[in-house]
Design goal:
- The protein is α+β, with helices and mostly antiparallel strands.
- Helices cover 33% and strands 28% of the residues.
- The chain has a 7-stranded mixed beta sheet, with helices on both faces. A 5-stranded mixed beta sheet has the order 18-17-19-20-21, sandwiched between helices. It has a 3-stranded antiparallel beta sheet with strand order 3-2-4.
- The chain is globular, with a radius of gyration of 27 Å.
- The two termini are 17 Å apart.
- The structure holds adenosine-5'-triphosphate (ATP).
- The site of adenosine-5'-triphosphate (ATP) has 16 residues, from strand 8, strand 11, strand 14 and helix 10.
Length: 424
């Protein structure tokens, strides 16, 4: 986002901000999820999660139309904040608590998702502050600082990667939903009235980025929001087909001038931009792209993970392999001396020294070569090179490719060049 777009710059904003920031952004009043408790198990659920789970169950039974109808009904009720209707829907569908197995439900109530803490050591000096539930507000309050120091002209973007915190009632599915997670967000500041085009354009750009990860088109879909967040005039999610179904990885939101206007009002500081092309002062509109780093990692892991049966007539065999595209694999190359003696480790070390400033390399001399290859498959290392007795004679090594498991002989001093070519 920042390197390939000349008009997008990065920032690292604070996690603690003035509490009024969250009043202005609407999070104190509106950052709620409707929840329901089961009276027998005392377990609390997010209403949308309960209903979505029921729809999922219907799909596994081949009742796709009913599932679609149920989700439609839910979206409509959520859009109207109709809590009685949502409770009724849960009761009518016979949805039960997974623990008590009963339908003894409380009313549906709203719960705020922000974590709060106190600032200051003496109690009467304390001030309730919040851990940021999104990184976006740090960008909004700094928008003019960045625009002025970066001499940026509209349209331009400010992006950041950072921790966000949400008091999720049910944090589950590994790193899919956590209370402390990492967001990668970008706010794109535009002229009012151009939001429709920029919204469409960012949808397309972001989908292209997703496809560039090597994930096929069918594994993604857009999901338009029916219930819009308090700040949005259009919004959609990019969903990925996780092993547990299509789920959001990224949100694209047209946030209008909602945030900047409110910060201007609450801080009494002008949030206006002077557009010399049209000779006008205005509060810019904003398109936001917001993706979870952890969810992206989970998506990459889900996509790459494979268990392969390599059995032959003679013996049973299998392997676990992470088929990451080479440019994404955390570890690019393993350098493996066949044995720990006869000068082979020393030669392997010279290959490590030649390569390690360019990409991540892993050196290992323990265990049989077959075991070492399998360990590298399991962490997704795309290339292994093995130094053996022949290396001492003709300075060649064996390179082994993770996906095909094919091996070939190459010159030891070409390893760096070959790997570099493949990982770019
Ligand atoms: P969800 O509907 O799954 O709760 P959201 O619509 O509240 O997500 P946004 O506020 O749009 O999410 O946040 C942007 C991105 O941040 C999401 O697309 C997701 O990738 C990530 N994200 C949000 N909440 C969590 C969480 N609790 N754990 C991990 N990642 C999260």
């Amino acid at each position: 986002m920042t390197q390939m777009h000349e008009n997008i710059v990065g920032i690292d904003a604070a996690i603690f901000m003035h509490p009024t920031t969250w009043k202005a952004s609407g999070h104190v009043d509106n950052f709620n999820d409707p929840m329901i408790d089961n009276k027998d198990s005392k377990k609390r659920y997010r209403v949308d999660h309960l209903i979505e789970a029921k729809a999922e169950e219907m799909r596994t039974e081949g009742r796709d139309d009913e599932a679609d109808g149920l989700l439609d009904d839910m979206d409509k009720l959520l859009a109207k904040d109709d809590f009685d209707g949502l409770r009724q829907l849960i009761v009518n569908q016979g949805i039960k608590c997974a623990i008590s197995k009963t339908s003894n439900w409380t009313e549906v109530r709203q719960f705020n998702l922000m974590f709060s803490t106190q600032m200051g050591s003496v109690s009467d000096e304390t001030n309730e502050i919040y851990l940021r539930p999104e990184t976006a507000q740090g960008i909004f309050v700094n928008f003019l600082n960045v625009q002025k120091t970066g001499r940026l002209k509209i349209p331009f973007g400010i992006a950041q990667i950072g921790k966000a915190f949400r008091n999720e009632i049910v944090a589950r599915q590994f790193i899919f939903r956590m209370r402390e997670f990492e967001q990668m967000e970008m706010q794109y500041f535009i002229r009012p009235g151009t939001q429709k085009e920029w919204y469409e354009s960012w949808k397309e750009t972001r989908m292209k980025w997703h496809l560039s990860l090597g994930i096929p088109k069918e594994k993604y879909r857009f999901h338009d929001h029916v219930k819009l967040a308090h700040y949005a005039d259009a919004a959609c999610d990019i969903e990925y087909d996780f092993p547990f179904g299509f789920k959001e990885v990224e949100g694209i939101h047209s946030r209008t001038d909602f945030d900047l206007k409110n910060h201007q009002e609450y801080s009494k500081k002008k949030m206006q931009y002077f557009d010399s092309e049209v000779n006008q002062n205005y509060i810019p509109y904003v398109i936001e792209t917001s993706i979870g780093l952890d969810r992206t990692i989970l998506m990459m892991l889900s996509e790459a993970y494979a268990e392969e049966d390599l059995s032959t007539a003679e013996k049973q065999d299998s392997r676990v392999v992470l088929r990451f595209p080479s440019k994404i694999s955390p570890m690019k190359l393993a350098v493996l001396p066949l044995v720990k003696k006869d000068g082979l480790p020393e030669i392997a070390r010279t290959i490590m020294d030649d390569c390690k400033s360019q990409f991540r390399c892993f050196y290992e001399e323990k265990d049989t070569i077959g075991k070492r290859y399998r360990r590298m498959d399991a962490i997704g290392t795309p290339f292994c090179v093995t130094v053996d007795q022949q290396t001492k004679q003709d300075n060649t090594v064996t390179i082994r490719y993770r996906d095909t498991m094919q091996q070939e002989r190459i010159a030891a001093d070409k390893v760096r060049e070959i790997v570099l070519k493949e990982i770019q």
